[in-house]
Amino acid sequence: MTFATSSPGASTAGQGTTPVSLLNKPSSPTNNFLRVSLEAISNMSLQPICQNCTTSTTPLWRRDEAGSVLCNACGLFLKLHSRPRPISLKTDVIKSRNRVKNSGQSAKKKVSTQIVS
């Protein structure tokens, strides 16, 4: 959806005129419609919702072939099984993995070099 904010013929290329914004004009039916539409858009939630399980909490958002927003679990299930994830598998808890933390050393072992004379 696009909104026009200036008249199509208005140009500022060297003429010294500034385009007139539709929102600054006196009230008109078009102006009122645009104002209501812009207010409705600004009041909409910016949080995505999974099109399959309707969750709004996930560590990663994915999209299906049609471009619909999916949560991580539904997106991975679809990719692996080529069918939508059953709602019966939905949980409210996101499990995290227990990962081993390194103490700052690389995976390679340090080799001590000795000079033999």
Write up this protein:
It is built from two helices and two strands, in the order αββα. The chain is mainly alpha-helical. The protein has helices spanning 29-43, 72-81, and strands at residues 61-63, 69-71. It is elongated, with a radius of gyration of 28 Å. The protein has a two-stranded antiparallel ribbon with strand order 1-2. It is 21% helix and 5% strand. The protein has a domain at 41-85: Erythroid Transcription Factor GATA-1, subunit A (Erythroid Transcription Factor GATA-1, Chain A). InterPro entries: Transcription_factor_GATA (IPR039355), Znf_GATA (IPR000679), Znf_NHR/GATA (IPR013088). Pfam families: GATA. Residues 101-117 have a biased composition (Polar residues). One of its GO terms (biological process) is positive regulation of transcription by RNA polymerase II. Its main location: nucleus.
Task: List descriptors.
mainly alpha; Erythroid Transcription Factor GATA-1, Chain A; 2 helices; 21% helix; 5% strand
Write a short abstract of this structure.
This protein is mainly alpha-helical and 117 residues long. The chain has helices spanning 29-43, 72-81; strands spanning 61-63, 69-71.
